[in-house]
Structures are given as C-alpha cells and as structure tokens.
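step=predict obj=Carboxylic ester hydrolase n=549
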Amino acid sequence: MKIPVLWRWGLLGLLVVSILLTVFLVIFLRESPDLIIVNTSVGSIQGMRATNGDYNIFLGIPYAKVNESNPFGASTPYPKFDNVFVANDDTKVCPQHQNPDGPRGEIDCLHLSISVPDSAASSPLPVMVWIHSGAFERGATNTFGIKYLVRHGVIIVSINYRLGPYGFMCLDIPEVPGNQGLKDQVLALRWVRDNIEAFGGDVNKINVFGLSAGGHSIDFHILSDTEVLFNSAIIQSGSSMASTVFNNHRKTAPIDIAAQLGYNTSSIYEAISYLSTVDSNLVITASRALNYSYKPCTEIKFDGVESFLTRHWINADTPKVKGMPILIGYTEQELLMRYVNPNAFTNFNAIRKRLSETFNFDEVETAEREETIRNFYFGDNINITYDQMWEAVDFDSDYTYVYPTRRTINKYVASSAESIFFYVFAYNGTRNFHKMSNNVSIGSACHGDDLGYVFELSLFVEKPTPEDQLILDRITTMWTNFAKYSDPTPQVSSLLPVRWPSLTAESYNYMTLTEDMKVGQHPIQERMEFWDMFYKQNKKFEKGFYQNE
C-alpha cells in the first residue's frame, strides 16, 4: 500500500516534534533552577532548589528495602531505579511511638536526604552524615533542618533507620539476629560511599555525626565487624557503654506481641509470620503496652548472615579508630530534666536502678556498692530528697553519659586515634532544646540541648538572639571545620578566638563550649577518678565482660 506524501510528511513531522520535545524536556529538567537531576550508580535522581539558601535538596531517596514477609530481619539494598526518581518527599518515618501523637510510621521508611551547596559544582565537598537521636525508639530525618550547616560548604546527608522492635529485636536466630537498625545504617553509609561523588561529595571526607542514640550508633560502628565507612566522627552525648544502651533482650518478644494482639502461638516463626501481616502501628502499640524496649545486642554468628557485632562491646577492640579524628563530648548536666520535678525523689532508687542495668551484683553486693556511691555523692544523707537535686543530677549524669564517654575516649586513645577533640557543652540560652521544650530555666545545659545550636528546629520560631547566634555560628563552624580539616579550630579568628587543643592521655585537654571558649584539663577530675576506681574494683561483675571471650 502506498502511503500518501502528505501523510508521510505528517508522520515525519510528528517524529521530529517528538524528538525536539524530548530534547527540550531533558535540557529543561537538567537546567531548570527548580529541577535538578543527578546520575548515580542506582539511576537518575531528581532534586529541587531549597527555598532558604544556596543549595539543592534531594529528599526521601530509598537506600534499602525491608522484606515484607519478615520486617524484623535484615534489609537489602534498594534496586536500581527504572525511571528518574523524584526526590521531593521526606515525610516517611519508620514505625515508632511519638508523644503526644501516638504510633506512626511505615515499614517502607529506609530513605535518606541530601543537601548540596552550590559550591559543590566547582570542587568536591566534605560530606556529613547525620544519625538521629531518639533512644533507638523514635526519630526521623525530617526533624532536623540543616540550613545552618550547609551554608559552611559541606554536603549534609540525613538517614532514617528502623527503630524499636523492627530495628532492634534480638532473637538469636538467623532470621532476626539483632541490630537490624544498625545494619540499615551500614547500608545507608555504603550508599553514600558509592553515590555521593555524583552529588559533588568527596568520598575521602565522609564524616558521621550523631547525638544520643546517634552517638551510641557511631561508637558501635567503630566497634563493629563491618568495613570502615567514614573518615571522621562527631559523637555528641553518646557511647556504647552508656547505661541506657544495656538491655535484657526478650527472646519471646514476637510471641508476646502477637499474644497482646490476640494471636496465640508458641512458635517464634509463626509469631513473626503473623506480625508481618499486622499494621506496624498496632505492633508498636502492643510492644509499648508490654513496656518492652529494644537496643543493640551481641549477635550469634550464622552462616550466610552478615553480622554487625559478635563480641560484646565491653570487650571489643577499636582498631578502626586508628588514624581517625574524633570530636566527642557531652553537656554539663546531662540528666537535669530527670530531677527538676520533686516527684523524682519519691522512694529515690536511681543508684540501685543504674547498678542493675550494667552490673551483675547480687543483693548484698548491690547494697554495698549503693552505699559507697551514696556516701560519695550525697554524704551522710540517709534520705535523698529534692534538697539534693544537684547531687542527684551529678550522679546520674556521670553514671549514664559522662563516665561512659570518658571510657570511650580512653579506648580510642589506647587504639591510637589520630586526634581527639573533647568538649563540655555548658551554654544556657533560648535555643537549649530540651530545657525550652519543658520550660525549664534552672541549671546548665542538659541532654540534647546542643541540638538547637546545630540544627534549625520547629520549636524555635523566633530569630536567634545575638548571644544564641554567636554560639550557633561557633558550633556549626567548628563542626564543619572538623569535617573539612579534621580540626575544629584550624586557625583562630574573631569568631573562634581560642585554639582547641587535642586530647592526650596525659593532658586530657577539653573545651568548654559556653559564652567564652575555655580550654581546661581533666574535667570533674575527682568524680571521674571515683568511677575509675569503682569500675576497676568491679570489672568482673560488669555485664558482658566475659561474654564471648
């Protein structure tokens, strides 16, 4: 059949128009100031222009996938994209309970977000990967605004990881060996290593930073069986040896949660199979009703199963830290918030409770150690009341965060870390996160208060005061300097008028971060020496000490 000439020219015209339109769309998508496409090893990713600074954002990029038939097991790398992935939504969070909203989240949550300054177009930039806090039970990437950091010429990556029963159930079986949330973080860090160059990042300058559970996580990565995935670390109020990390893992957790939801079985596998079909919000609610908590654990090795940590962290060495720069510290009154309410002193048993978390003492041994600690912190007071609030804050802060940080530092020093910069955050301003959240004005900085001087947070709607702005500028400058140069104060300036010396075993230098930058040595030395002696005398009773030896 002979095709009419006009028809043939019509078809050709349509083809030409189609090609031109395709070329136009590609050029438009790549060059539009609002639509930016990056080609990575997993496919093309489309980002967009930030509205509050000179940078581009890529939100909610999936880096791993959870097995729907076993959402409590290990995740796997997300497959390559068939089409351009539009990275414009970071609203997904992993299943969790949040006060006062209750349960929220979904299993398909293993996403990361990337913020890229315009300066990445001219030369590769250092990369800072944020691991969020939240006691391994709550938190997400979208809580922490990064504009104060990205303005300093670094790429910021923030990651979601599974939490609670989905992230930290430890059952000693190949299907749920434990530490799934930490293994999610490993996959995220591998994704960054393999793809960040496409965004203008320097793969040889990957820094991880995190607070509380995020800081604990970083210490666990340094102790873990996996490869080295970062070049430097900032650990804020975090240590694998913090008492809040220790946990008695319930091996029957799936059975118990299923029973709470009305499904009765004695088989772990049947319970897991059932729970995989249940809405994650119901699982979180049932677990919470049982008052179960989930933390990192020591795994059993299984053939064909990638492990994260198979030696208890009390015994584990830290060869990864050799040659690695570390910036680490805590707030001056970490657990202030626990004792501002007089009700905290009704039947005060904090000492006994803390000892039970980290030591295997019998009743007589517990009573003896409790008396030793009482005498040191509270003197001759038989009944500890609200009048001893500050002594209680000192004790619990020291036991839970301060001394564990000291132990972690000592371990890093012994393993030849390249340089360690130690700080105490003591500033009391209007951006102290937890104090402002709870309308508390007394005392010094407490746990998490430093978040307000690193991130843009929804709690703070007013413009920072000049005093707060100075602290914010100093901390974000020092944190990003550390990511760039492995030194928070490579040179003094009007903003950073004091050189921050690194720590050694002999000098134990530290910087007090407050209105003035003050360098000192051996903070609260008498209290730390008390705990040095206490742990030396009781080492054989410490939980995990002989495990897997």
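step=describe
The chain has two domains: 34-240, 317-549.
step=end
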